[in-house]
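Help needed: design a sequence for this.
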């Protein structure tokens, strides 16, 4: 049934008063798109990458890989877009060397070095409203300190100050993050890094109950929430020197996702130091391993026994030569990445509850 002339007249009247795009037909709305994460597994469980013009939360305990995941996202989007610019609120120190090792061009990162919560939030809102940057990162919420708390002595209670400010921030930043429905304005991704805390006085059948600081209301404001957890160490055996821990497998789980099924799991191998014998260096993901895993999972890479094929090309016995070619051929990587994302977007696909052994 088409829209009646009366409804169209009302739409025109409201748009004239409040600005073009205040009301639009659903069929005329342009989807904001996605920012790739640098990990095909994380892209898949998110529904194609990070949703733009939205805020997302990355959660985990200390030293699990939260900041690394965000820096790899920045690096991947900088690689694809020479104008990609990030505002990074550094409530915790911004490690320039680590960012560079993970592929980040620090000349395109604007660092707001403050732990003052009000200043940080006001600055974020101004950048979001300005439409001059592509990504805003708050690293991290627990490190921000409200002014009132900073002014009080150690023995004075400051219960829930941060949570109240956080709730107010998300009520205000939502409008600043919103972009035109026709897709003509520069998109923005907002990322907040958070850390688990023990939920004192609560019960969990799965061990110590956990919560994230910042109040419960923030959970409704995030479009996606991703848990980051270390799975296992990656070890390189060095002749005459023993075994060295060179990286870790990071397990990623979507706790909330408004544009794809939640509670999906992916893993990615991340190297935090050089591993020349394994062929990796500080800051690398094992991208080829991920592509092979998801290629087999979605039947893009055909596996017959110990032989693999993609279209007319064939590898084997074993997967080592295929992995070598994937690491060397950027075009083959991109071909496989796009095919995986297309297959993952089909509505009848099964939930990804773990794909580590698919290949």
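Sure. Designed sequence:
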């Amino acid at each position: 049934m088409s829209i009646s002339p009366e409804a169209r007249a009302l739409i025109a009247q409201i748009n004239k008063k409040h600005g073009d795009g205040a009301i639009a037909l659903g069929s005329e709305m342009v989807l904001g798109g996605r920012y790739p994460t640098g990990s095909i597994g994380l892209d898949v469980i998110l529904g194609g990458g990070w949703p733009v013009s939205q805020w997302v939360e990355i959660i985990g305990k200390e030293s699990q890989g939260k900041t690394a995941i965000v820096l790899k996202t920045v690096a991947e989007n900088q690689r694809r877009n020479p104008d990609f610019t990030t505002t990074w609120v550094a409530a915790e120190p911004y490690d320039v060397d680590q960012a560079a090792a993970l592929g980040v061009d620090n000349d395109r990162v604007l660092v707001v070095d403050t732990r003052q919560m009000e200043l940080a939030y006001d600055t974020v809102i101004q950048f979001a409203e300005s439409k001059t940057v592509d990504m805003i990162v708050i690293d991290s919420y627990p490190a921000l300190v409200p002014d009132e708390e900073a002014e009080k002595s150690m023995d004075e209670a400051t219960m829930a100050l941060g949570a109240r400010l956080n709730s107010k921030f998300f009520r205000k930043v939502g409008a600043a993050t919103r972009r035109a429905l026709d897709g003509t304005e520069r998109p923005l991704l907002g990322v907040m890094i958070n850390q688990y805390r023990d939920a004192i006085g609560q019960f969990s059948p799965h061990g110590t109950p956990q919560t994230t600081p910042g109040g419960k209301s923030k959970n409704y404001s995030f479009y996606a929430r991703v848990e980051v957890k270390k799975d296992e160490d990656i070890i390189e055996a060095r002749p005459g020197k023993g075994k060295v821990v060179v990286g870790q497998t990071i397990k990623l789980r979507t706790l909330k996702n408004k544009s794809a099924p939640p509670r999906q799991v992916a893993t990615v191998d991340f190297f935090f130091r050089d591993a020349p014998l394994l062929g990796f260096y500080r800051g690398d993901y094992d991208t080829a391993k991920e592509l092979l895993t998801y290629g087999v999972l979605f039947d893009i890479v055909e596996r017959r026994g110990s032989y693999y094929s993609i279209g007319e090309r064939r590898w084997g016995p074993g997967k080592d030569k295929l992995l070598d070619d994937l690491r060397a051929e950027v075009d083959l990587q991109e071909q496989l990445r796009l095919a995986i994302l297309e297959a993952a977007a089909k509505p009848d696909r099964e939930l990804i509850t773990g794909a580590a052994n698919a290949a």
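The CA atoms of residues 30 and 184 lie 9 Å apart.
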